[in-house]
C-alpha cells in the first residue's frame, strides 16, 4: 500500500471516528428523533455527504453508535478478573463495575433508552452483539455453577436473570434520579447518596445469590 493510500485510509478512519463521537453526543442529548444530522456533521468537522457515504442514513449511524457502545461495555467486562476472586468479591466486583460504568458513561443509558423506544429495531439483527452478549452470560453462568458446586451460591440462579437484575437496580437509579429526588426528597447524585446506594445494591445482590 502506497503512502498516499495509507494516508487516505487513516484520514477516512479519523473522519468516521469524529462522526461517531459527535453522533454519540447528539443522539444521547436529543434522542434518535430529535438528533440533527447537520449538528453531527458540524461537530465532527465533516459534511453530510461523508456521513451518508460512511453510514448510509441517520438510522445507520445510530445503529453503529449503539453497537459500538454495547461492545464497549462488553469489552470492559471481559477485563474483570472474576474467575480469580472469592465468590462474594466477584459478585461485588460485577455490581460495582456496572454502577461505575453508568456513572462514567451516562450516554450509554440515554442511547439504550432511545433504542427501547424504537423497540430495539436497530440492534435486533446484530450478530456481533448477540455473540458477545451470549459469551458474557455463559461466563457468568460458569461462575455461578462453580460456586454452586462449592456450596456458596444458590443453585437456582440464572445468569441472564442475574445480569438483568444487576443492570436494573443500577440503571433505574440513574434514569429516575430527577423524579426520585422530588418524590423521596433527597439528592440522588451527592457523593454520600451514591455511596449509600451502591452499598445497598451490592448487599441486595449478595443476599439474592449467596447462601449465607
From TrEMBL:
Domain HTH tetR-type: 13-73
Record has DNA-binding as a keyword: yes
InterPro entries in the cross-refs: Homeodomain-like_sf (IPR009057), HTH-type_TetR-like_transc_reg (IPR050109), HTH_TetR (IPR001647), NicS_C (IPR041474), Tet_transcr_reg_TetR-rel_C_sf (IPR036271)
Protein name per UniProt: TetR family transcriptional regulator
Signal peptide (residue range): none
Keywords: DNA-binding
Gene3D superfamilies: Tetracycline Repressor, domain 2 (1.10.357.10)
DNA-binding region: 36-55
Pfam families assigned to the protein according to its UniProt record, in alphabetical order: TetR_C_29 (PF17938), TetR_N (PF00440)
Molecular function terms from GO: DNA binding
Amino acid at each position: 500500500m502506497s503512502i498516499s493510500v495509507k494516508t487516505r485510509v487513516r484520514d477516512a478512519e479519523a473522519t468516521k471516528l469524529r462522526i461517531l463521537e459527535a453522533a454519540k453526543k447528539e443522539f444521547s442529548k436529543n434522542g434518535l428523533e430529535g438528533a440533527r444530522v447537520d449538528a453531527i456533521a458540524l461537530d465532527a468537522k465533516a459534511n453530510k455527504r461523508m456521513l451518508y457515504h460512511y453510514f448510509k442514513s441517520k438510522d445507520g449511524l445510530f445503529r453503529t453508535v449503539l453497537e459500538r457502545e454495547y461492545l464497549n461495555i462488553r469489552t470492559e467486562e471481559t477485563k474483570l478478573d472474576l474467575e480469580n476472586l472469592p465468590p462474594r468479591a466477584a459478585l461485588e466486583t460485577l455490581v460495582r463495575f456496572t454502577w461505575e460504568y453508568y456513572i462514567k458513561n451516562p450516554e450509554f443509558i440515554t442511547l439504550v433508552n432511545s433504542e427501547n423506544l424504537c423497540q430495539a429495531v436497530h440492534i435486533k439483527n446484530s450478530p456481533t452483539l448477540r455473540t458477545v452478549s451470549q459469551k458474557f452470560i455463559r461466563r457468568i453462568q460458569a461462575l455461578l455453577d462453580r460456586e454452586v458446586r462449592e456450596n456458596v451460591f444458590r443453585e437456582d440462579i440464572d445468569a441472564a436473570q442475574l445480569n438483568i437484575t444487576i443492570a436494573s437496580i443500577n440503571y433505574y437509579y440513574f434514569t429516575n434520579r430527577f423524579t426520585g429526588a422530588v418524590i423521596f426528597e433527597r439528592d440522588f447524585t451527592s457523593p454520600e447518596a451514591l455511596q449509600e446506594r451502591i452499598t445497598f445494591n451490592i448487599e441486595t445482590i449478595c443476599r439474592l445469590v449467596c447462601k449465607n
